[in-house]
Amino acid sequence: MRAPRLMIAGVTRQNRHGIIASVGRLVTGAGGWIVDHALFSNVAATIRAEIPRPGLTGFGAGLLELGVALDRESAESLSAAAGRPDDDDLVVSLSLTFLHDEPDLKHPVPAVPG
Predict the structure, then answer these.
(1) Which residues, listed in sequence order, are joined to residue 39 by a DSSP beta bridge?
(2) Does residue 12 carry a pLDDT above 90?
């Protein structure tokens, strides 16, 4: 049986490197583990983690302490999921948007012979 899914979104003005590392520590502190991640230049990141339901409240509070503002729908969904009595692990997809004045990261793409 597949774990239930929870999609949440937040924005932050904090340094992206620090936030990504801190989110990883929040996930493990909540008894979970990182399943996957994707970085979108220096603008956004998506982190997928499996987190036991009892750890969701601490995970949500930790995001706020880090300076990640969840949108209203995400905060309500996280609160509702944490309040359910079952002990399921949830696959939480966290989409982070980084607000900053830096230019987009550009990576040169090497020419492929052929």
Answers:
(1) 45
(2) yes
pLDDT tens-digit readout, 14-44: 999 999 999 999 999 999 999 999 999 889 9
- Which of these, 43, 28, 35, 25, lies nearest to 95 by C-alpha position? 43
At 65-107, the pLDDT tens digits run: 999 999 999 999 999 999 888 878 899 999 999 998 877 777 7
Phi, psi (degrees; rounded to nearest 5) at 82: -70, -30
Secondary structure class of 37 (helix, strand, coil)? strand
Distance CA 23, CA 39 (A): 14
3-state SS string for the chain: CCCCEEEEEEEECCCHHHHHHHHHHHHHHCCCEEEEEEEECCCEEEEEEEEEHHHHHHHHHHHHHHCCEECHHHHHHHHHHHHCCCCCEEEEEEEEEECCCCCCCCCCCCCCCC
Q: Kindly give the pairing relationship between strand 5-12 and strand 89-98.
A: parallel
Phi and psi at residue 56, to the nearest 5° = -65, -35
